[in-house]
Amino acid sequence: MRxxxxxxxxxxxxxxxxHRLELDRVTLKLGGRNLFAxxxxxxxxxxxxVLMGPSGSxxxxxxxxxxxxxxxxxxxxxxxxxxxxxxxxxxxxxxRVGILFQDDLLFPHMSVAENxxxxxPPAVWGRAGRRAVVxxxxxxxxxxxxxxxxxxxxxxxxxxxxxxxxxxxAEPAALLLDEPFGKLDAALxxxxxxWVFDHARRRGLPTLLVTHDPADAEEADGPxxxxxxxxxxxxxxxxxxxxxxxx
Length: 247
Ligand SMILES: Nc1ncnc2c1ncn2[C@@H]1O[C@H](COP(=O)(O)OP(=O)(O)OP(=O)(O)O)[C@@H](O)[C@H]1O
Hints:
alpha/beta, nucleotide-binding, ABC_transporter-like_CS
C-alpha cells in the first residue's frame, strides 16, 4: 500500500494547516464519581497521542465525549478545544472530529465506493466530482477497482483501510482511533498502524489512539496517558505522574 493519501485526494482534501486539540482538566463522572483524574493534554497536529488504561477506566467514553456523542448518564466537566474553539455544546456533525472504531462499521447494504462517498462533505460537488475523489482515494490505498465490491467480500485489512479513508474524506480536524488495529493479525497490524500514523502526520491531524498494545505506544510520537495511573479523585494540582510519556 502506498504511503500518501492526503496529497492525492484533491477537491479540497489535501493536507490541512496544522491543527491542535487541547483537553483542559477534563473529567467524566458516572453516578457522582470520577472515572479518572482530571486530564489535561495538548495534541499537536500530526502527532499521535495514546490513551491506555484498564478496562472500564473510561477510554471509549472519553472519545465519545470528544465526538459529542457521550451518553447523558455521564457528567462531563473541563474544556475540549479544537483549533482554538471550545467544542462545548457543538453537535457531533459540527465538531470536525473523525473517529475510527475496531469494528469498522461500514454500511453492509452499500458498495465500498458508496461507503466512501457517504463520508464526503457536501462541498464536493456533482456525481462525477464525487466519484473522482472516491476513485483517487481507492488508488491511494491500493484498492483501485474495489469500488463496486460489497464490504463483506473484503479482507480485514482492506476493510480497515476503507473505514479510515471514509473517516478522512469527511475532512476532520482531529482523529480519534478506538482500538482500530485490534482485530488485525500481527503483520498487518504494524503496516496498518504505520499507514494510519502517516496519514495523521501528512494531514497535520492531532490524533488520539485508544489501545491496550504497548507496541502502539512505542510507535506513537505524542504523549502517552494511562487513565489508570492516578486515583480518580486526585486533585487537579497533583496530576504530574499521569501522563506517562511526554512527546
Ligand atoms: N452508556 C453508558 N451508560 C452508563 N454507563 C456506561 C455507559 N457506557 C459506558 N459506561 C460505563 O462507563 C465506564 C467506562 O466505560 P468505557 O467503555 O469508557 O471504558 P474503557 O476504558 O473504554 O473500557 P474497555 O478497555 O473495556 O473498552 C464503565 O464502567 C462502563 O460500564
